[in-house]
Each structure stands twice: as C-alpha cells, then as structure tokens.
Design brief:
By secondary structure, the protein is an alpha/beta fold. The protein contains 13 helices and nine strands. Helix 5 packs across helix 9 and helix 9 (288-297) crosses helix 10. It is globular, with a radius of gyration of 22 Å.
C-alpha cells in the first residue's frame, strides 16, 4: 500500500492480514516476480508483514530526476538507521475507536489506550500526540537523543464508511475537500487514507456505494496511498504491520544510500516540532490561491486533479473571471465557448485533462449568475 513504484500508488488491504499488496502496474517492479510471489505467499500465511516486499524500493533513486520517495535522517558514517533511530507511531489524541472487552463496548478516550497496549504487545512504539494534520504520523526518534525526532514520509487520515460518506454530503463537502487539500500539502511524500469497513456489506444505498467507490478511485488518481481494513481490529493489525514495514524500508534505504555514497547528498526530513509548527501556520495563514483552491473544491463533481489543473493555469478567481470575460466579449464569443474554456487543461501530473463536463460545471456554478 505504501510501497509500489513512484509512478502510482499501491492498494493494500489490512482486514486482518490475509490480503497481500497489489502494486500499481505503472513503473518498474521493485522486486523479481519470484520474490514477489514468495512474499505474497508468506503474507497469505501471516508469516511476514504483507507490505515488506515492496516498501524497501522507496529508498531507490528515481531514474527520471524526481526526488526519492523517502528522505533519510542524518546517520553517522559506518552506522545504520536501526542502530541510531527508533520508529515511533504517533496517534492523534482525538482518535476514536470502538473496542469490545467482553460484553462492554469501549469508545473514544477509553478505547485508545487498549489499542495502543495491543500494538505495544506486538513490538510497536506508539504514543498519543495532538497532531497538526492526519490521524497517524511516524517519526524516527534518535536513540542517543530522544528529544530529537525526524518526521518520516507517512501521514494517514483514517475514515470509516459512515464518516467518509457523511463528510462528502453536500452540506459538509467543503470540510472533506479542505482536509484532503491540506493532507496533500503537508510536506510529506506519502500521504494516504485508511478506509475502515466494508461498504459492500453495509447495505448502503446505491448512490452511497457509488460515492464510496468514486472517492476511492479519485484518491488513488490524486496520488494518495489507499489502505483498507474491515474494522478497528483490522486497523490495529494494519498499523502494526505498517510500522514494522516502514522501519525495514528506512533501514534498507539507508543501507542503499550508504552503499552508493549518496547518503550525504540526500535531503533530510524535517524535525517534528518544525514540521508541526509549519503545518499549523500553513493552515492558519492561507494564501489567496489556497482560498481559491478550496472554493473550487466545494464545486460539486470536481476532484483534486481538476482543481490543481485550474489553479495552475488561473491562480486566482479574478484571473479566471478575466479569461471568461475575454471569451464572452471576443468576436463570435458566447456562453457555450466560456463554458468550455477549461476543457482539456492538462492535469499537473501529466495524466489526463479537465473534461468538458467539469469545465461547464465550474462556469455554471461560479459564474453564470454574473454573466
């Protein structure tokens, strides 16, 4: 799930460990077919963590000149990542789980310590913290100086089926889109969602099931890592295994960087206090383009790809209005031409473009009343 090639996200299920990873078909394979098959078979038998076979490749240097998928904290010559650092999972202190102990249901603040103790029993160092973004973040804590923590590339927002569906209803859609907007701009290279629950087993309305599937696809197209679990127990298993896999991935990346002499040239990850402060300030002090992007996120039917394509070409609301005015006032100009103004604007990732239908929606929603 957090592995896969730089060209596309993997999809991982964590309903209890029986489902292994499937990498995106785009981009070169990180392991041989034989190794992948062996790892998948072991994962199916719950002998090894199901993500470990694909995560180590994230430390490789991309051939297209783009930055590596992970940044390494400073490591002394002759040392190793695992010798100098401990990977710590930080769980937002507002996270709510549901945990049954006998006939008693624990929720909210009661259930969090139970989940954390279960993860500790599986060898995970986990702590509560008030996170500036996301529900789960991982840091590398220096063993010789425990107050020094570097933020690793992973940040996850956890959503249950009901939570996700309610957050994208028309009355609150802007909240979901705003949350996703900041998640993708928090400075970490592996943002993602953990989708908890089986939408197909909950007898949802056809429209809700369609929405669930659409959001899944849209998030993957936007480059977000997608993780899935059947419920809180599966989430516990997934986060435990993912933590171990992240530690192995960074260990492998550090060893690779030391072997090819690139360790000293790689960009370092941010220190946790600096990153947390920067994210909070970013969310509190929005630029005009941020506000404009969030306005577009509230337009029904627009995804992150379309919003980024529009703001890349028209970074402010007045710049787009000026373009519409020119389209309407030019010889032979009319409303139909204005409605198609945004059609075929390229997505910033180079894959696809804005459709005619979405171009028309933007004009009709934001500008038709003033034309």
């Amino acid at each position: 799930g957090s592995g896969g090639s730089a060209a596309g996200p993997s999809r991982v299920q964590g309903s209890g460990g029986s489902n292994g990873p499937t990498s995106s078909a785009a981009g070169p394979s990180c392991v041989s077919a034989a190794d992948a098959a062996a790892a998948a078979a072991a994962a199916a038998a719950e002998i090894v963590q199901p993500y470990q076979w694909s995560l180590p490749c994230m430390g490789t240097m991309p051939q297209d000149g783009s930055p590596p998928l992970v940044r390494l904290p400073p490591i002394a010559a002759g040392s190793s990542f695992e010798r100098e650092y401990e990977v710590v999972m930080l769980l937002d202190n507002r996270e709510r789980f549901v945990q049954r102990v006998g006939s008693t249901s624990l929720t909210g603040a009661q259930s969090r310590p139970v989940h954390m103790e279960q993860m500790r029993a599986r060898g995970v160092t986990v702590e509560e913290r008030s996170l500036s973004i996301g529900d789960v973040v991982w840091v590398a804590r220096r063993k010789a100086a425990p107050n020094t923590e570097y933020v690793l590339e992973f940040v996850i927002e956890r959503k249950s089926v009901s939570d996700l569906l309610s957050s994208i209803q028309e009355s609150s859609k802007q909240r979901f889109q705003r949350q996703k907007w900041w998640l993708m701009r928090c400075g970490l290279r592996q943002p993602g969602y953990l989708l908890e629950g089986d939408a197909t087993a909950q007898r949802l309305k056809e429209s809700d099931l369609k929405t669930w599937k659409t959001v899944n696809v849209a998030n993957e197209l936007d480059g977000l890592r997608m993780f899935r679990s059947s419920g809180p127990p599966g989430t516990l298993t997934l986060l435990t295994r993912l933590t171990h896999a992240i530690a192995r991935a960074y260990s492998a990346a550090a060893a690779l960087a030391a072997g090819n002499g690139s360790r000293q040239q790689l960009e370092q990850p941010p220190l946790y206090p600096d990153w947390s402060t920067r994210v909070r300030r970013m969310r509190d002090s929005r630029t005009i383009q941020d506000v404009w992007g969030q306005m577009l996120c509230a337009v029904p039917g627009l995804g992150q790809q379309t919003v980024e394509a529009i703001t890349a070409r028209y970074p402010t609301l007045p710049s787009l209005w000026s373009a519409y005015h020119q389209a309407l006032s030019a010889p032979g100009g009319n409303k139909d031409g204005a409605r198609m103004l945004l059609a075929r604007l390229p997505h910033v990732n180079g894959l696809g473009s804005v459709s005619e239908a979405k171009s028309a929606i933007v004009y009709d929603t934001l500008f038709e009343g003033g034309s």
